[in-house]
Amino acid sequence: MNPISPSLLSSGLAILAATIAIPATTAYSASCGMRVVLSDTDFPMRSQLRGQKGTVLINVTLDADGHATGAEVQRSSGHLLLDLAATRSVLNKWQFDVSHCAHTFPATHQVAVEFRNDEYE
Predict the structure, then answer these.
(1) What per-residue string of b and e applies to 53-80 under the rule 16 or more CB within 10 Å gives b?
(2) Tens-of-pLDDT digits for all 121 residues of the chain?
(3) Strand 54-62 and strand 107-117: pairing?
(4) What is the CATH topology of the domain spanning 6-120?
(5) Of these four, 54, 88, 92, 121, which has the most CB atoms within 10 Å of its CB?
């Protein structure tokens, strides 16, 4: 078995982020055109090597500066490691553009984080 180089591993992985408006819950719904402007997402190496993939839907609570103050998995990818990585990344690394929003914060927004690894399919 050949060892796997980090450059080969990273060349075949893809992490995508999309935003989807959701109905209002306890916080005001983000229907004002909020969008993700920074979506640096960790893809756990263990998940990559196991060939895990999937999409995590997360309800994100945002403040007036576009930072996530809360995140709750709405629909699991089917893999706990991916769900945790997506939630941590949204909370700690993501930034949202809320400049077009004139409503009261906090606001709730739903994002889809897709983990895909074409190298191991």
Answers:
(1) bbbbbbbbbbeeebebebbebeeebebe
(2) 444 444 434 434 455 544 443 333 334 444 567 788 988 899 999 999 999 999 999 999 999 899 999 999 999 999 999 999 999 999 999 999 988 877 788 888 899 999 998 765 5
(3) antiparallel
(4) TolA/TonB C-terminal domain (3.30.2420)
(5) 54
